[in-house]
Amino acid sequence: MGPEHGEALAACLALDLGIEQGWRNCLIEGDCLVVIQKLLMVQEDASAVGPIIKDILRLSSFFDTVSYTHVKRSANSAAHCLAKAAFSIQAGGIPPASLFDTLEVEAKFH
């Protein structure tokens, strides 16, 4: 798996978390421009990450609003943390506790 897979899995896990927490609005910030562009295009994607993109778009329907924004890696510690964890989290696994702290800190800036 490459960075695109990690970033896409992180976005998918973030939306899963948002659904579990009952959030109505979600902002997905990512440092992988290719993934953010694919999410903004909202069209069929035949690439290797296409199935994950499709799942992200399906999950986004559970929210009132979902925004996708490209940011520099240094400004996106939550996504970086989750992208790293995505490689070790099995389906149905529990996100790392440190992620919740990072999300709380970043939420204060939005």
From TrEMBL:
GO terms for molecular function: nucleic acid binding; RNA-DNA hybrid ribonuclease activity. Coiled coil: none annotated. Residues 3-86 form the RNase H type-1 domain. It comes from the Eukaryota. PANTHER family: BNAC02G40300D PROTEIN (PTHR47074), REVERSE TRANSCRIPTASE-LIKE PROTEIN (PTHR47074:SF11). It comes from Sesamum radiatum (Black benniseed). This is RNase H type-1 domain-containing protein. CDD domains: RNase_H_like (cd06222).
